[in-house]
Amino acid sequence: MPRTKSSTPGAPTIVDVAREAGVSKGLVSLVINDRPGVADATRARVRDAADRLGWRPNLQARRLSTRTTYALGLVLRRDPRIVAADPFYPAFMAGIESVLSPEGRVLVLSVVATAEAEERAYRSFAADRRVDGVFLNDLRHGDDRVGLLAGLGLPGVLVGRLEEPGSLPAVVLDDRPGVTAAVRHLVDLGHRRVAYVGGDPALQHARHRRQAFEEAVAGHGLTPTAVVDTDFTMAGGAAATAALLGGDRPTAIVYANDPMAVAGLGVLQGSGVRVPDAMSVVGFDGTEIGRHTHPALTTIRSDPEQWGAAAARTLLELATSGHAPDVELPPAELVPRRSTGPAPDR
Amino acid sequence: MPRTKSSTPGAPTIVDVAREAGVSKGLVSLVINDRPGVADATRARVRDAADRLGWRPNLQARRLSTRTTYALGLVLRRDPRIVAADPFYPAFMAGIESVLSPEGRVLVLSVVATAEAEERAYRSFAADRRVDGVFLNDLRHGDDRVGLLAGLGLPGVLVGRLEEPGSLPAVVLDDRPGVTAAVRHLVDLGHRRVAYVGGDPALQHARHRRQAFEEAVAGHGLTPTAVVDTDFTMAGGAAATAALLGGDRPTAIVYANDPMAVAGLGVLQGSGVRVPDAMSVVGFDGTEIGRHTHPALTTIRSDPEQWGAAAARTLLELATSGHAPDVELPPAELVPRRSTGPAPDR
DNA sequence: CTGAAAGCGCTTACAG
DNA sequence: CTGAAAGCGCTTACAG
């Protein structure tokens, strides 16, 4: 049986409010959307009626009419068991939330394990019109998601830099100054044998960090003792550290993220290599954990929360107006703590 | 200008499919929703037409008709700067995703900082009918969210146990066996002076763990050397550990989560207290990081991902059918590693 | 400055 | 087994 048109039971609708205020429902719509062309007295009368009835516009109906979802999408591709160890995304998501929440918008999250599932997630976001736009995070070399989104007609914002100047707005945080400062810090402490443990080289930011390291070392007339690519996991950081101890041993290691540095610290201590006396260690992220290791971790700090907030603002603007400018955030910076010290045996 | 009814431009609608298949749109709806009462040949014809046109039912329209949002809500109340250090929720969320994603449903996440904002988040989920139900996580003593949800008419599932037998289905994982095993492990190693660093006592699971610890210790005819409540943060764990070293020193410390245990490890090492020679340490969570500390962390492992998956299944069932049974997950268990060893000076 | 009506794209009884 | 029509609760030109 079709429900009778706006009888009193159930949540009030715009029809109830219109009747209560003695106006048409079109007018109610104008008022709650703050459109011009409504007399102040009428406006007040409608507002009062809505308050009295405790009416909130039905989001689904609004979505259908405006063809807007009031939601933004984030796809995380990674092993679910690893996601817990990554300190970046929780903070990044908190930043997104900080701008969406006051706007009454929400974040729709999709955690997937494989590249295929990732593509499916974007397609499904688009096909179901589930979100107004998506974040393009964990940018990869020759990333095909830009083309995918273009084909799907789904607005997207780049979280980071893509080498090909793209059609999508980018929200960028430059790692370079932090890495450069870290290398200078080590050189100033007398280190000449510095190694690097990088993240997954398929990821653009892993490449950028590594490249910044290599250039910084070269800038001091040195050559890296070793450069090892891994996958950003603690297990990867531990294995790389063990390998570095086996070979031509450096006096300092720079890691591409904090979890790897923490795992490296564990391996060094387990091998009887004193930090920082025998080995200096530098992380990357500036996360909570580095404050509480022993020794506390010298690290390169970026601000994932600000990054998330800026990306959300940019995506909102893009989805609303059709374009948005690039944003450049304050660059990463060095946070010296106790895991770096003078080079041994000078 | 009102858009002309289903002209060809833009995405195809159910009307286009109906025309293409030569049936009414009502019939198309029956077919895609797998309702009985449609001839197989017709069914196939409709499916073909939909495929040919690349049609996917519009989610917003469907939501409006069915009064279902195809989304579940999770509210996280915590300092955004702390969220990154918590290993539980990313895994828990991955578990939720693992059941929602194949169903074409999504998780809507809200990260809030205060109790007021938390209540607002639930109210807004309900008022905007943004989700079909919510997870009630981080259960607190005398939690008023159960009443709040009842008032809002919003289905909810308890993630954990509430002491008052409630009207809401609960998905429970018993910490007790893990804690009991940890204490037995320590006693077997000769420890008689065991301390406990607990989490925020406002949280039910913090109380349960603490209580389990106290009962286990009493079960061996011992008394805890000290029991310190904190807030589950690394900073809290570090401070509590420092305090324990100042007083009547224990030979083993059990922590209510891994981050606190890791921070405790840092303080112990910084104070020259060798682990496990002079002090045994037990964590709680079984997270990745504990594998890579030095020494590797003995911990009590639960399975946040399974927990998330079970909670999602239960909430889906509740939202669909109006009720769902409680679920009891396999209990937490001890994972002995290197941070526990024989008690010193017996 | 306001009202009446059509439209968004589905679902669902009801009548055949 | 199928079709025509009303309804979900909004928004938006258009006419007054």
TrEMBL record, chains A, B:
UniProt keyword annotation of Transcription regulation present: yes
SMART domains reported for this sequence: HTH_LACI
Gene3D superfamilies per the UniProt record, alphabetical: 3.40.50.2300, lambda repressor-like DNA-binding domains
Keyword Transcription regulation: yes
Pfam families in the cross-refs: LacI, Peripla_BP_3
Organism field: Microlunatus flavus
Entry protein name: DNA-binding transcriptional regulator, LacI/PurR family
Single GO molecular function: DNA-binding transcription factor activity
Region (Disordered) residue spans: 322-346
Alphabetized UniProt keyword annotations: DNA-binding, Transcription, Transcription regulation
Family matches, as PANTHER family: ALANINE RACEMASE (PTHR30146:SF155), LACI-RELATED TRANSCRIPTIONAL REPRESSOR (PTHR30146)
Domain HTH lacI-type: start-end pairs: 12-66
